[in-house]
């Protein structure tokens, strides 16, 4: 089928005022204002009431954390005490609860305009060995593109790490399962719907041996690498005390300084470290809401980009963001960065959109998504401006960020409609809300 998405109210693509043509899940033509497609189309969609963006790409999340939003045990704490409060609750995670948590997170992301999501699951209490399989199954059922990170922790409290013993695994078990899920699910080809990343959790929860072995395994499978790094001053202090090195030095010694590596948070990098990241092509996922909630600090987004490091956006876990809305993250990114750089022109609305699309795609090592261009996947987010909050807005694209858009009217992934009229076809949100809420009660 050739679908003409015609005459959008606004579209984030050059010379496409007349819309775009999609065939077999790929963008095949940009149509100029007042023009018609070069070849006949079999279907058209009137987008005159919609602002059209490339589908948003979330590059850091912890889906399971939707079960512990706004939890009294963790409210108003910074990262280390926050983790210590929540680890015992997460240690009780069951497969059926994880499934609901993943479904809720993915649904919320999709409804905000997200077409690709990366999850970082690193908790493996007994009985949850197939966590990656569950996430892949749920993503396939909803039709969203994903990078599922097979996370890991093997440094528990008895070894001098932060997590409790019951949520960690030994290195051999971790690597065996990493190889299993890479063989089952990882598809590095353009247009793939599922990719697997290897993601040892953080310097205070994994050994340097596991970091190095994960890098070697990822190379074998042409898979990306992901971890938390430079998130807090506590992390810096821990690494200096235990290893006598800063976090980035540990990363480099483990063989991670390369393209297809992306890091979550990246707050406490020095300017010299930003240069090293840029030279190596390592990406950083900026998580402004989570960083604000946990009072972790400000990411050096401009220094990183100037050095050549890709910058993407992520909502982080729903226990530190308390939401999975990627469109809201753009507005938070704008405000946080203007405060940090003390300049209203330092970061624009379009910069934050670029981080959430093209920048995020680069972080994931993908060149087939993130832009509206011929030859790329037809991953698109459609927003209406008919709510009162948008009345009087003169720049439709900037208005999405400045006026606080938070819900897409339509979402297309690979040329297929996955959100229609603000709803996910085939998904009963009310039933999901009830089941998810009941599951969450077990973690009170």
Automatic annotation (TrEMBL):
<keyword id="KW-0378">Hydrolase</keyword>
<dbReference type="InterPro" id="IPR006680">
    <property type="entry name" value="Amidohydro-rel"/>
</dbReference>
<comment type="similarity">
    <text>Belongs to the metallo-dependent hydrolases superfamily. ATZ/TRZ family.</text>
</comment>
<dbReference type="InterPro" id="IPR050287">
    <property type="entry name" value="MTA/SAH_deaminase"/>
</dbReference>
<dbReference type="Pfam" id="PF01979">
    <property type="entry name" value="Amidohydro_1"/>
</dbReference>
<dbReference type="GO" id="GO:0102127">
    <property type="term" value="F:8-oxoguanine deaminase activity"/>
</dbReference>
<dbReference type="InterPro" id="IPR011059">
    <property type="entry name" value="Metal-dep_hydrolase_composite"/>
</dbReference>
<feature type="domain" description="Amidohydrolase-related">
    <location>
        <begin position="51"/>
        <end position="417"/>
    </location>
</feature>
<dbReference type="InterPro" id="IPR032466">
    <property type="entry name" value="Metal_Hydrolase"/>
</dbReference>
<protein>
    <submittedName>
        <fullName>8-oxoguanine deaminase</fullName>
        <ecNumber>3.5.4.32</ecNumber>
    </submittedName>
</protein>
């Amino acid at each position: 089928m050739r679908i003409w998405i015609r005459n959008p109210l606004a579209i984030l693509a050059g010379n496409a005022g007349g819309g775009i043509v999609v065939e077999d899940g790929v963008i095949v033509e940009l149509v100029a204002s007042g023009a018609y497609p070069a070849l006949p189309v079999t279907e058209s969609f009137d987008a005159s009431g919609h602002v059209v963006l490339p589908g948003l790409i979330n590059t850091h999340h912890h889906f399971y954390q939707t079960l512990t939003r706004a939890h009294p045990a963790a409210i108003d704490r910074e990262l280390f005490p926050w983790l210590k409060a929540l680890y015992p609750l997460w240690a009780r995670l069951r497969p059926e609860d994880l499934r609901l948590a993943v479904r809720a997170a993915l649904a919320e992301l999709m409804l905000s305009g997200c077409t690709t999501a990366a999850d970082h699951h690193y908790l493996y209490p007994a009985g949850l060995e197939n966590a990656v399989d569950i996430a892949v199954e749920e993503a396939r059922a909803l039709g969203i593109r994903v990078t599922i990170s097979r996370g890991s922790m093997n440094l528990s409290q008895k070894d001098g790490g932060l997590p409790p013993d019951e949520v960690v695994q030994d290195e051999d078990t971790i690597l065996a399962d990493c190889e299993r899920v890479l063989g089952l699910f990882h598809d590095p080809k353009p247009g793939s719907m599922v990719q697997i990343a290897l993601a040892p959790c953080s310097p205070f929860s994994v050994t340097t041996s596991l970091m190095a072995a994960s890098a070697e395994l990822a190379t074998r499978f042409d898979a990306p690498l992901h971890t938390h790094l430079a998130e807090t001053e506590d992390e810096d202090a821990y690494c200096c005390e235990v290893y006598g090195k800063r976090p980035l030095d540990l990363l480099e010694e483990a063989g991670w300084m390369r393209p297809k590596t992306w890091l979550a948070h990246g707050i406490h990098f020095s300017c010299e470290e930003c240069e090293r990241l840029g030279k190596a092509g390592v990406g950083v996922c900026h998580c402004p809401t989570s960083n604000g909630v946990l009072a972790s600090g400000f990411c050096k987004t401009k220094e990183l980009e100037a050095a050549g490091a890709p910058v993407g956006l992520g909502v982080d876990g729903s226990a530190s963001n308390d939401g999975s809305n990627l469109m809201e993250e753009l507005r938070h990114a704008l405000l946080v960065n203007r405060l940090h750089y003390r300049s209203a022109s330092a970061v624009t609305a379009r910069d934050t959109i670029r981080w959430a699309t093209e920048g995020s795609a680069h972080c994931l090592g993908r060149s087939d998504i993130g832009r509206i261009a011929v030859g790329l996947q037809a991953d698109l987010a459609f927003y209406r401006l008919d709510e009162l909050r948008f009345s009087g807005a003169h720049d439709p694209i900037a208005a999405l960020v400045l006026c606080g858009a938070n819900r897409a009217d339509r979402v297309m992934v690979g040329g297929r409609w996955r959100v229609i009229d603000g709803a996910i076809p085939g998904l009963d949100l009310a039933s999901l809300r009830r089941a998810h809420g009941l599951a969450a009660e077990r973690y009170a």
